[in-house]
Amino acid sequence: MRSFFAALALALALPAGAFADSDGELLGDAERGADVFRKCTGCHKVGPDAPNRAGPHLNEIFGRKAGSIEGFKYSKSMQRAFGDGLVWDAETLDAYIENPRALISGTRMSFRGLKDPQDRHDVLAYLRQFTASPQNIPEAAPTANAHEVVLSPEILAIVGDAEYGEYLAAECLTCHKRSGSDDGIPSIVNWYEEDFVVAMHAYKRKVRPHPVMQMMASRLSDEEIAALAAYFAKIEQDG
Ligand code: HEC
Ligand code: HEC
Question: Which range is the signal sequence, renumbered to this chain (predicted)?
Fold first, then answer.
């Protein structure tokens, strides 16, 4: 099974170096960002010798692999993101700070997210100052705006047809177990429908890095994603 995934991952891997070398539109006003960062300081420190608190320190966060601070106890989901090779850049940070669960479903960061794009871009500009050698660091994909995981109210309002979802789910269940048992492939049963929809769109928009799931999600329409969300939200865990 492992080698199957490895081969598939290789076959599907997208050119990774597609980064703009400008600062992109995702970095705002660092001074204002220092203020916005007060929403984070209850859990995160940044600056010389910043320690870990409830959250990991945020020095050198640009270009840092997700979940990579030694000795910090990350959630299982963050450890999986580390295994998938998720790297923090302006784009992935923007998505995570906007809605942590869009990027990392089971994240322990209990933070509602910053919905105002200006707030996010300012706080990113602030954090950017604590990453050395900026010239080597990817800032954001050129198409950053298309990658946003903010879903329009119309997408979120689609009422999923659970019966159609059951039909579509057959393919998913070749990997994801009904019982939700968790051997490298995460459980997708009994989720909140909205979290499920947001996660699938994050693969579809390639903000989440997993190539197999990106391919799966890219083939699904908004209605199909809603149908799957409705089905998996109600599925019995019958082993
Ligand atoms: C209530 C506490 C809390 C608040 C508030 C909070 N975070 Fe976090 N943050 C965490 C925790 C806990 C983690 C580790 C998450 C995990 O393991 O799933 C984390 C992880 C992160 C990571 C990933 C770090 C890594 O090593 O991969 C970033 C980046 C981050 N937070 C940024 C922010 C920013 C920016 C803010 C403010 C806008 C913020 N956080 C607010 C608790 C918090
Ligand atoms: C070839 C095996 C395979 C198939 C088929 C598959 N998945 Fe996945 N899925 C995975 C793996 C592996 C992960 C973990 C990816 C990651 O780390 O981001 C995953 C992750 C997910 C997640 C995010 C879980 C989390 O905890 O963040 C969702 C939601 C999901 N899959 C839904 C689906 C749906 C819906 C289908 C069917 C349309 C499907 N998957 C088909 C292997 C598969």
Answer: 1-20
